[in-house]
């Protein structure tokens, strides 16, 4: 499995979480933290830079990077609405958040990920850097959010 497959598995895990989080505001905070501080960080720091020299993918990178900023902003709004006790607005923000992330992930999978073509050494370097980000986020938290087993993660990295 390569880093792109890993990210696609994470996308699938997010879809499952979003399905169950739509009426539960508690789990959205863990998911939002994972998206911001692990998943998107791997994309921004490791994956997207590799596409700078791929014309078919490069044209979509700025939009995908802007999506990450928008996703962060909506995540901040979710936290703000929680502290303000605005439950109806909170539900709408959670719905917006899940829709934007799902659309963004689908765009990555169709517009950018198919062009991932790196050498074996670059793949190993990417996996090593991703593992550092995962460990920084918290390995047990990562495994819990993604549903990925430690054995599968060992195979990826």
Any overview of this molecule?
This protein is mainly alpha-helical and 157 residues long. Helix content is 85%, strand content 0%. It is globular and about 50 Å long. It starts with a helix and ends with a helix. The mean pLDDT is 88.
Radius of gyration: 16 Å
Flag low-confidence runs: none
Mean pLDDT: 88
From the N-terminal CA to the C-terminal CA, the straight-line distance is: 9 Å
Q: Count every beta strand, where a strand is a DSSP E run of 2 or more residues.
A: 0
Give keywords.
157 residues; mainly alpha; 7 helices; 0% strand; globular
Write the layout of secondary structure elements.
Elements: H1 3-21, H2 25-50, H3 55-84, H4 87-112, H5 120-137, H6 139-146, H7 150-156
Helix pairs in contact: 1-2, 1-4, 2-3, 2-5, 3-4
In short:
The chain has seven helices and no strands.
């Amino acid at each position: 499995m390569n880093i792109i497959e890993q990210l696609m598995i994470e996308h699938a895990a997010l879809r499952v979480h979003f399905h169950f989080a739509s009426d539960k505001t508690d789990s959205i905070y863990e998911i939002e933290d994972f998206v911001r501080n692990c998943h998107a960080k791997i994309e921004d720091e490791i994956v997207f830079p590799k596409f700078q020299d791929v014309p078919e993918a490069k044209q979509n990178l700025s939009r995908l990077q802007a999506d990450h900023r928008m996703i962060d902003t909506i995540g901040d709004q979710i936290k703000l609405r929680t502290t303000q006790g605005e439950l109806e607005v909170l539900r709408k923000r959670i719905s917006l958040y899940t829709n934007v992330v799902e659309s963004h992930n689908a765009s990555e999978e169709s517009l950018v990920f198919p062009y991932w073509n790196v050498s074996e050494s670059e793949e190993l370097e990417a996996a090593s850097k991703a593992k550092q980000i995962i460990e920084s986020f918290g390995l047990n938290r990562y495994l819990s959010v993604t549903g990925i087993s430690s054995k599968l993660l060992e195979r990826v990295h």
